[in-house]
Amino acid sequence: MTGTKRNLAIFDIDGTIMHSAGHDVSLFREAHAQHIPKESMTAHWGNFSQMTDFAINNEFFDRVHGRAPTDHELNAIQSTFIALVRDAHMARPEIFSPVLGALHAIENLSGHTDWAVGFASGGWEVSATYKLETMGINANAYPTAFGDAHADRLTLVQSAIDAAKITHDRDAFDHIVSVGDGIWDVAAARDLNLPFIGISSWVSRETLMEAGAQDVIDHYEDYAAFEQLLLNSRVPN
What we know:
single chain, alpha/beta, Rossmann fold, 2 domains, 10 helices, 6 strands, globular
């Protein structure tokens, strides 16, 4: 263990550092609708058991076709989705704007002596990295995990942690905090026994706290307070 960064903050993207969560869901559904018969979309879309693009896509195809998508089908839907995301960003960039103070927080933490930063997004890599790029964040400069192969949030976050250990040459971190905006993020943090900070930019503070989050903020504008909360945040109950 030779890395100097002792602590790790793992951030989700949609709804956590960017105001894109609801729009992303709509565009993801629209991408499928362009390749699936309307009656199948009506009958089978919604109430998915896991919230990553990989899991949603596979579960939906299993409902419609009784099988996983072929590579050709997956590539076609991914291409449609990223095109929709790019078009939406060009038409209305404000719907992909950073959560207040998020960029400042990530920049400060990345340059901090003790803190490392990673990203764990349930979205496909092609869209998640594009969104980071629109914020001026180079995904290649950070340990990451995306929803291309992970069926659940627990393994997604753990994969980002494992990537961070490699990036920063550590066997373990002294303190790891998960930062997210969904009730599935709360559940993953609880299952991994990780302190958690909820961001109520999309899901309400009340909903996150009912799910078990003990520490919830609206944004990152007060960076000093956020950094202190990182040290004092608690595992969801």
